[in-house]
Specification:
alpha/beta; 184 residues; 4 strands
């Protein structure tokens, strides 16, 4: 599933609001095809991590909501950041007022505290694009159960491949698959 305006999806250039809407629509589509919430996981990489966190934070019944979002078994966030402003600051000069220049926020920190599911946060320790300190901060903000996995030698786009064994073990432990050890 592509954001509107990308891949095979029609539409204008996406906005923060529209990618969140697209994620909700995709989640409803998935839930219709996989009725068992224990088999549904949310995954987001990089900017998609912010979208995944927003979606996961919305997956709880809201008082007065006509249609609560379908549940998930867990959230996997890979190589993501805390806020778009923090990310922009990491790529530029500290004195530049990037917060004033950004119209999109992609603020994930406050949403992490709202999560009601297990969270696996993965980051390449050698990621020079998005510093792993952002994933560490997201991990600290999550209520748990949770697990932080920093993959030695992995960069921004190859954590799953570089740390395949650790990745699988962390997923097994956190999401109750197999006889793995408990997590934080």
């Amino acid at each position: 599933i592509d954001y509107r305006g990308f891949g095979k999806s029609d539409g204008d250039v996406p906005t923060e609001k529209s990618v969140y809407e697209d994620a909700h629509a995709a989640w409803r589509w998935l839930a219709m095809r996989e009725p068992d919430p224990a088999r549904r996981f949310i995954y987001g990489h990089s900017l998609g991590g912010a979208v995944a966190i927003d979606l996961a934070a919305s997956l709880r019944p809201v008082d007065g909501a006509a249609t609560p979002m379908p549940a998930a078994a867990g959230l996997i966030v890979e190589s993501s950041f805390t806020t778009l402003e923090d990310m922009a600051k990491s790529l530029t000069y500290p004195w530049l007022p990037v917060g004033l220049l950004l119209s999109q926020k992609f603020e994930s920190m406050s949403k992490m505290a709202k999560l009601k599911m297990p969270v696996l946060i993965v980051h390449g320790a050698a990621d020079h694009l998005v510093p792993s300190r952002f994933s560490e901060a997201l991990y600290r903000a999550a209520p748990g159960p949770k697990k932080l996995l920093l993959i030695d030698g992995a960069t921004h786009n190859n954590s799953m491949r570089t740390g395949a064994v650790e990745y699988r073990e962390a997923m097994a432990a956190l999401f109750g698959l197999g006889g793995a050890a408990p997590v934080d």
